[in-house]
Amino acid sequence: GENVEQHPSTLSVQEGDSAVIKCTYSDSASNYFPWYKQELGKGPQLIIDIRSNVGEKKDQRIAVTLNKTAKHFSLHITETQPEDSAVYFCAARDQGGGADGLTFGKGTHLIIQP
Amino acid sequence: AAGVIQSPRHLIKEKRETATLKCYPIPRHDTVYWYQQGPGQDPQFLISFYEKMQSDKGSIPDRFSAQQFSDYHSELNMSSLELGDSALYFCASSLGGSTYNEQFFGPGTRLTVL
């Protein structure tokens, strides 16, 4: 089955700086890679996703890059703000079907220092 | 916008008891997923349903069963509860059977087994 590795487990950055979270996946059949933000006591919230036929996707301060050859993808957050503090999870899903479950990374606790 | 509804939000049970968790997907969504998240862990996929049929199966124990009803809501039935079943249980929903369908998570049910 799929295995997703995520680094770092904790990331502390100054407000206004950029944050980068990296993930690798093992199953070359995976073709959908969402990123979720989870605040304490809440469910994961989708913040951005990327399909395997795309190398980069951007939405305001958030961007995701995908390198299919190396089987890794990254989340980039620019101009970080205090409300960006949360746990971020990367995930992967193979092309088996839309009802297949996601395989998550272990999560990154992002701390924005004022 | 309407979100995924889960009930109850909190549940306390004794060992060896049974529990039933309910999930009401976003209106018009036909696919439901169940995930289990232990303390400080990533969500682990349990099972999914598409158009009322079981679609994918993850690490769901044999003591657990689930189904999706004609109105698309889903129930997760847990029997012979163990201390290790204490966790957050999330339901997510999506529309259609495409690989790229976004999964929207509910607020979760916190199950505590004493």
Précis, in short:
The complex is a heterodimer of chains A (114) and B (114). Chain A has strands at 4-7, 10-14, 19-25, 30-38, 45-51, 56-59, 62-67, 72-77, 86-94, 103-104, 108-113.
In terms of DSSP E residues, the strand content of chain A is over 45%
User: How many strands in all of chain A?
Assistant: 11
Q: Approximately what portion of the residues of chain B adopt beta-strand conformation?
A: over 45%
- Biggest contact: A-B, 27 and 33 residues
Tell me the structural class of chain B.
mainly beta
SSE topology string of chain A: EEEEEEEEEEE
Strand segment count of chain B: 11
Structural class of chain A: mainly beta
Low-confidence stretches of chain B: none
Q: What ranges of chain A have pLDDT less than 50 throughout 5 or more consecutive residues?
A: none
| Gap between N and C termini of chain B | 36 Å
In round numbers, the mean pLDDT of chain A is 94
Helix content of chain B: under 10%
- Note the main sheet of chain A: 6 strands, mixed
Major sheet description of chain B: 7 strands, mixed
What characteristic shape of chain A results from the CA principal axes?
globular
> H/E series of chain B, N to C?
EEEEEEEEEEE
How far is the first residue's CA from the last residue's CA of chain A?
Answer: 41 Å
What shape does the CA trace of chain B take? globular
Our Rg estimate of chain A from Cα atoms comes to 14 Å
SSE map:
The complex is a heterodimer of chains A (114) and B (114).
Chain A: E1 4-7, E2 10-14, E3 19-25, E4 30-38, E5 45-51, E6 56-59, E7 62-67, E8 72-77, E9 86-94, E10 103-104, E11 108-113
Parallel strand pairs in A: 2-11
Antiparallel strand pairs in A: 1-3, 3-8, 4-5, 4-9, 6-7, 7-8, 9-10, 9-11
Chain B: E1 5-7, E2 10-13, E3 19-24, E4 31-37, E5 44-50, E6 53-57, E7 64-68, E8 74-78, E9 87-94, E10 104-105, E11 109-113
Parallel strand pairs in B: 2-11
Antiparallel strand pairs in B: 1-3, 3-8, 4-5, 4-9, 5-6, 7-8, 9-10, 9-11
